[in-house]
Prior knowledge:
This protein is of the alpha+beta class. It has helices spanning 20-35, 84-104, 132-139, 147-162, 170-179, 181-192, 200-211, 217-228, 246-256, 262-268, 305-318; strands spanning 58-63, 68-72, 78-79, 214-215, 273-275, 280-285, 289-294.
Amino acid sequence: MTPDLPINLYPKPSPNLIQADHLQHTLNELHARYRSLNQGKPASYIPELAKANPDWFGICIMGVDGQRFEVGDTEQLFTIQSISKVFVHGLALEDHGRERVLDRVGVEPTGDAFNAIVLDERSKRPYNPMVNAGAIATTSLIKGKGATDRLNRMLAMFERYIGHESYIDMPTFTSERSTGHRNRAMAHLMLNFGMIDEHIDEALDLYFQQCSLMVDCRDLAMMAATLANRGKNPLTGIQAVPAEYVRDMLSVMYTCGMYNFAGEWAYLVGLPAKSGVCGGIIVVVPNRMGIAVFSPPLDERGNSVRGVKVCEDLSQQFGLHLFDCTGSEKIT
Ligand code: GLN
């Protein structure tokens, strides 16, 4: 029987807006509330990261309409670390397509630490591109005629998201390269199972280089906003990644982006996100905005303590959880 009334399968998003001054006021409040939270410690297993000032604390929101809201140390430079994994995953998808990337790296959350030396028993693939093993495999897929070309393609990719050129911090790169024994061990394990080819050192160097890209909180917010804006940088209008792959990137961020806190994060915050041991977190609110928080002290899972708090509060306060249907306050 055909129903009497048409069913609207594609309802328009709610037109309610967050007022700009309300958003700025909220950011100021959150910054003041969590500035004195003195839990966690900056990462020290990469010697260069231990030099971070635990008081650095910045929050930046970039709307898909190009409006920016910020508070604190949003121009302090730091290395992007694991947040790079999201964007290199996008480049691998662009280079090889969904099927081939899936052959080499899964999309299952691990429930283990980001640096766990573990592969899927059955398929021998690393679990997902957001943990180190999976990220090294993803990086090894980046196309190019030799190491320099691969690095240049990667830098050009980051530039499309950020909107300006960025560079690799050499002290961090060499620090990671000389101490990254776990990452090296993972690469060898994957070579053993044929998940990466024999150019291990080249793949590892490129992985350490991507982790050592210098960004600030504004850059990260812009990168997140680009993903929120279907892969198009809101200010330059440049398509950073084909729109068809944004879905893949966000899905993996949603389920795996916060390491072994990913389930709790999905439950509490309900948005695709990625953290790094630099103390940065990016959050994507699809079709609305990108959020970035930077504060180096980390909890035991490697996520920024203040960053997690700020994102929980923002999601709660503005009803940003993807599955929130109480309609508290919405942004178009
Ligand atoms: N470069 C770091 C590593 O490989 C990245 C880890 C992270 O940010 N979680 O150990």
